[in-house]
Design goal:
This protein has 466 residues and is mainly alpha-helical. Helices cover 61% and strands 5% of the residues. It has 19 helices and six strands.
């Protein structure tokens, strides 16, 4: 076997600087398992189609098994001259079984081979991420269920708006991460497509059986156009997009944990085991974990933008630019999995300052909307009721009081419909439990949402086991 598979066309050896520059082995060597698995399936198909003999197929498959064991034992030597994981494996196979190894690449190209490897790798990674998200969602549900009585201010514009259950707030993140899981699951449909057999771009003259290869590798579908098969990276872009949205959600909860753990809020305390100190200020306890997750979000966004930029001007079919798809893909997989995992471990250890959260609901006129609702219940149109409550708030500000601290005579100056029962109407727990509209913060709603989520997760975990 010649040093490089294309040596026959060239009169000069590749410059070592070019070998270094074009090498991707440091990045794509993690594909070795999927590359070997794909090669074994391809080899079996070649034998089934009588393109190679059963004897050669057996020899190739045994040789590939030896290569795999060498890599896993850390005995395999990588070097830039062989460029990528495909050439490393092929070269090592040739050393072990000589002539038969040269038949393995029949009816395929590195173009469809790398597309196959990345699809298989991403397919496994996405399944793992979906399971990690299920664990994170489970932790969120447990945190909500354990703190069903905790009340906190809900915010709009980062201003106190209306009281909500802490559990209701946390279940909002359950919804976000559930959508993330659904997005990844849906993206799997477009990832789970076998491109092998498309060869360089035009297909092959050999009588191959692509559906047999798909069956061997567990693919749901075989790609329908050879040009698209080798030039498509939509499935990676879609994954990076879904990962970016998931990181948005992780960044948003990070921002809230950072705010809530500050002295200004003091709603929660992060566990010591998930915080760090200052090298100069002895009193500091820094929320480094959520800060780093928030920071890593930009990194994942950058990976998405990198691949969009790589692909945006490429003519069909394969171009070497596409070698650059793997670094952002692998980095995003590693980053996202690490962020989900660290949150799954940290969230159960957060301590709530329940009294502090409740106290924060008692100032800032969080009951103003409920005063307007009370007036509506007395037959006053909402816009009129809204204006009446607004005037009462303005008056209370001037007196340095909250609405519920005004006496009945003061409140009656704004509407003669106001009665003593307004004060019960404005109690924080009553305000929460009146919000029974589907998806609202009423305790019975949140309990139902928690139970529904538990059932949903139970079914998902059962699916993972099967």
């Amino acid at each position: 076997m010649s040093e490089k598979p294309w040596d026959g066309r060239f009169s000069e050896k590749t410059d070592t600087s070019v070998e270094t520059f074009t090498s991707s082995i440091d990045v794509d060597k993690r594909l070795y398992h999927h590359d070997i698995e794909g090669s074994i399936a391809h080899c079996r198909m070649l034998a089934k189609a009588l393109i190679i003999s059963e004897t050669d197929a057996d020899s190739i498959i045994q040789g590939l098994g030896k290569v795999k064991k060498e890599i896993e034992r850390g005995e395999f030597v990588f070097n830039d001259s062989l460029e990528d994981i495909h050439m490393h494996i092929e070269s090592s196979l040739a050393e072990k079984i000589t002539k038969a190894a040269q038949k393995l690449h029949t009816a395929r190209s590195r173009n469809d081979q790398v597309a196959l490897d990345t699809r298989m790798y991403l397919r496994d990674a996405v399944k793992s991420i979906i399971q990690l998200l299920a664990s994170l969602r489970h932790v969120i549900v447990m945190l909500a269920e354990d703190n069903l009585s905790a009340i906190m201010p809900g915010y709009t514009h980062l201003q106190r708006a209306q009281p909500v259950l802490f559990s209701h707030h946390m279940m909002a993140y359950y919804e976000m991460f559930t959508r993330d899981s659904q997005r990844f699951s849906d993206g799997l449909k477009r990832t789970d497509v076998n491109p092998l057999g498309s060869a360089a771009l035009a297909g092959t003259t050999y009588p191959i059986d692509r559906d047999y290869t798909s069956e061997q590798l567990g693919f749901a579908k075989t790609s329908g156009n050879s040009i698209d098969s080798v030039s498509d990276r939509d499935y990676i872009i879609e994954f990076l997009s879904s990962a970016s949205i998931c990181m948005v959600h992780l960044s948003r909860i990070s921002e809230e944990l950072i705010l809530w753990s500050s002295s200004e809020f003091n709603f929660i305390e992060l566990p010591d085991s998930f915080a760090t100190g200052s090298s100069i200020m002895p009193q500091k306890k820094n929320p480094d974990v959520p800060e780093l997750v928030r920071g890593k979000t930009g990194r994942v966004f950058g990976n998405l933008m990198a691949l969009l930029t790589i692909m945006k001007s490429l003519p069909l079919a394969y171009n070497r630019d596409m070698q650059e798809d793997k670094a952002p893909l692998f980095d995003t997989i590693d980053t996202l999995k690490a962020c989900i995992d660290i949150y799954t471990k940290m969230l159960p250890k957060i301590r709530l300052n329940i009294d502090k959260m409740l106290d924060a609901t008692r100032t800032g006129f969080l009951n103003a909307t409920d005063m307007a609702d009370y007036l509506v219940s007395k037959g006053i149109p909402f816009r009129e009721a809204h204006a009446c409550a607004g005037k009462a708030v303005n008056y209370a500000i001037g007196k340095g009081k909250e609405l519920n601290e005004l006496d009945l005579e003061e409140l009656k100056t704004f509407s003669n419909k106001i009665e003593k029962n307004l004060f019960v109407f404005l109690e924080t727990s009553a305000m929460i439990d009146r919000r029974k509209s589907f998806g609202g913060t009423a305790t019975e709603n949140v309990k139902a949402a928690v139970q529904s989520a538990r059932k949903e997760l139970k079914n998902e975990f059962a699916g993972f086991r099967t």
